[in-house]
Amino acid sequence: MARAALFGACGWAGPALSATVVAHITSDKGATEGAVVTVSRTGQPPLSAKAGARAVMIQQDRQFAPFVLPVQLGTTVEFPNRDPFRHQVYSFSAAKPLELKLYGNNEVNSVTFDKEGVVALGCNIHDNMLAYIYVVATPFFALSGKDGAGRVEQLPAGAYTVKVWHPGQKTSEVVAKDVTLAANDTLTVDLKIEMKRERRQRKPGAVDEKEY
User: Fold this and answer.
1) pTM, whole model, 2 decimals?
2) Is residue 71 one of the residues assigned to a domain?
3) How many angstroms from the chain centroid is the CA of residue 80?
4) Is 2 inside a domain boundary?
5) Which of these, 44, 56, 60, 202, lies nearest to 137 by C-alpha position?
6) Which structural domain range is residue 105 located in?
7) Which of 34, 147, 160, 196 sits between 20 and 30 A of 168, alpha carbons compared?
8) What string of pLDDT tens digits covers the 212 residues of the chain?
């Protein structure tokens, strides 16, 4: 499956002397992949992305890609359809209710995400399709890999709060840790979340969908 790309400026160019946070995310199942790690400066108001910041949520093989897409507040996300049939993307999420009417192969819709929070995506034509856009109000964020680590770089020295969110977490309670960074610091933070029953994208069904 093709991977979705984030091609807007999602980071912030810090000073020459900058710090790094490496967050290790675990649950009762061990290292946790696909968690969004955010690092916010203490007391700072919400920060929107620079003008023109863009990201991509692909529709291909009757799936969304990526499954979790973190973006900064104000980012425009493109929704290209790379399947030979039509999709109709929707969300009932409070952070961004949306409906992209039926559109076909090589057509693209776009949406600007202007409110923080979780946006769960579905398709009115293909019930198996599921993905999440997580809108954050900081330019400092990362997605944890298979080893459970999310690395956030180019942080100016100062006081921060490190938070983690995962679509499979059991409650909406935020797991967070306050840290203080000095110039050129590399700080390791361990954060543990409680997971609910695993919910992944289901495989496409056997329905012949060529008519769509």
Assistant:
1) 0.86
2) yes
3) 17
4) no
5) 44
6) 19-192
7) 160
8) 333 334 333 444 444 579 999 999 999 989 999 999 999 999 999 999 999 999 999 999 999 999 999 999 999 999 999 999 999 999 999 999 999 999 999 999 999 999 999 999 999 999 999 999 999 999 999 999 999 999 999 999 999 999 999 999 998 888 999 999 999 999 999 999 999 876 555 554 434 444 44
